[in-house]
Design brief:
335 residues, Na+/H+ antiporter like fold, 16 helices, transmembrane
C-alpha cells in the first residue's frame, strides 16, 4: 500500500532535485536520502506485515481507522504539491496523457486477465482488479529518480492519476470486477473523494497559503507517511492473517505477475511512443506501481478482508521490485 504519494520517496526527492531534473541527477544528499528511503520503507512495511501475521489479535480492532490513516497520507502528499507541479502537467500534455491512459488501461486489464487466468476465488480476484484500478503508487517518484528517469514527468503523471481517481477507479472496478463481486461504484466514488481528493486538495491549499511553514517540516513528511502506511499494512494483514497463510502462494504469484508485467508494458508503451529512455523508465514505474494503500482501504470497506490481501502483498512487493529494477536501470545507464 505504499502507494501514497508521500511515502519516503516523493517528498525526499522533491525537496531535493526532482523539479525538472529529467535525468535524476542531483545533490549527493538528496540521492542518499532517496536511497535510504527506498531501502527502509519496504523493511518497515515488511516488519508491519510480519507483526500482523504473528499477533493478529492485537490489531484486528484497528480496521475502522484505516480510511483516516490513508487520509493522513494523502494530506501529506498534498503538502508536497506546488504550482510548478501543475505547470509541468500543462507543459507536457501528450506525455502526461499517455502515462495516464497507459496506467489506467494496462494495470486494470492485467488485473482482470491474471485473476481470470489463475482462476482466483471471487474475493481475491476482486482484490487484484481493485489494485489494478488504483492510481499510481508513491514509490514511483523515488525509483524513477534512482533509475535516472524523467522525475518531473513521474510527479506529473502520479499527481494527475491521483486527482482523477474518484472518476476513474469506481467505474473501472465496476466494469471488471462486477462478475466476481457486487460493486457499489457510487459508494466507492464517495469514499475516494473523502480519503483521497479532499485531503490532497486540502494539503495543496495549506502549502499554497503557508508554504514557508510547510517547508520547515517537508523532510519529515515522508517518514510520517511511511509509519502511517506501515500501520495500515499492519491492520489489513492482521485482519486476514489466516487467509494470508492459506493463500499466500497464489496471492504472491498474482502480485508478482501483475507488477512485473505492468513494469514491462509500461516501459514498452514509452518506447513505442518514442518518448526516449528516461521517460520510458518513468512510464514503467508509473504503470507498474500502484496506490495499494487506497486499494486495501477500499477492499476492506466495500468487499472483505480477504479482498484486501492482494493490496497488502502488493504494498511490500512493488517497493522491493521497484528498487531492484531502478538499480538495474541506473547501472545500465552508466555502462
Amino acid at each position: 500500500m505504499p502507494n501514497e504519494r508521500t511515502s519516503p520517496d516523493s517528498a525526499a526527492v522533491r525537496s531535493g532535485t526532482t523539479e525538472g531534473s529529467g535525468t535524476g541527477e542531483g545533490s549527493s544528499s538528496s540521492g542518499r536520502t532517496a536511497r535510504l528511503a527506498v531501502t527502509v520503507f519496504p523493511l518497515l512495511v515488511l516488519a508491519a506485515g510480519g507483526a500482523g501475521l504473528a499477533a493478529p489479535s492485537h490489531f484486528t480492532g484497528w480496521a475502522p481507522a484505516v480510511p483516516y490513516l490513508l487520509g493522513v497520507v494523502m494530506f501529506a502528499m498534498g503538502l508536497t504539491l506546488t504550482p510548478a507541479d501543475f505547470r509541468a502537467v500543462a507543459a507536457r500534455p501528450w506525455a502526461v496523457g499517455l502515462g495516464l491512459v497507459a496506467h489506467y488501461v494496462i494495470m486494470p486489464g492485467l488485473g482482470w486477465l491474471i485473476a481470470t487466468a489463475l482462476g482466483l476465488p471471487p474475493q481475491l480476484a476482486a482484490g487484484v482488479i481493485l489494485v489494478g484500478c488504483a492510481p499510481s503508487g508513491t514509490a514511483s517518484n523515488v525509483v524513477t529518480y534512482l533509475a535516472r528517469g524523467d522525475v518531473a514527468l513521474s510527479v506529473s503523471v502520479a499527481t494527475v492519476s491521483t486527482l482523477v481517481a474518484p472518476l476513474v477507479t469506481p467505474p473501472l472496478t465496476l466494469l471488471l470486477a462486477d462478475r466476481f463481486l457486487d460493486v457499489d461504484a457510487g459508494a466507492m466514488f464517495v469514499d475516494i473523494l473523502k480519503t483521497v481528493l479532499v485531503p490532497v486538495v486540502g494539503g495543496a491549499l495549506v502549502r499554497l497559503l503557508a508554504g514557508r511553514y510547510v517547508d520547515r517540516v517537508l523532510r519529515a513528511l515522508p517518514w510520517v507517511s511511511a509509519l502511517t502506511i506501515s500501520v495500515i499494512v499492519l491492520t489489513v494483514v492482521s485482519g486476514s492473517a489466516t487467509r494470508i497463510k492459506d493463500a499466500a502462494g497464489l496471492v504472491l504469484l498474482a502480485v508478482v505477475l501483475h507488477n512485473g508485467l505492468g513494469l514491462a508494458l509500461g516501459y514498452a508503451s514509452g518506447r513505442l511512443a518514442r518518448l526516449g529512455r528516461p521517460a520510458s523508465r518513468t512510464m514503467a514505474f508509473e504503470v507498474g506501481m500502484q496506490n495499494s494503500g487506497l486499494a486495501a482501504s477500499l477492499a476492506t470497506a466495500h468487499f472483505s478482508a480477504a479482498a484486501a490481501l492482494p493490496a497488502a502483498v502488493f504494498s511490500v512487493w512493488h517497493n522491493v521490485s521497484g528498487a531492484v529494477v531502478a538499480a538495474w536501470m541506473s547501472r545500465a545507464e552508466r555502462s
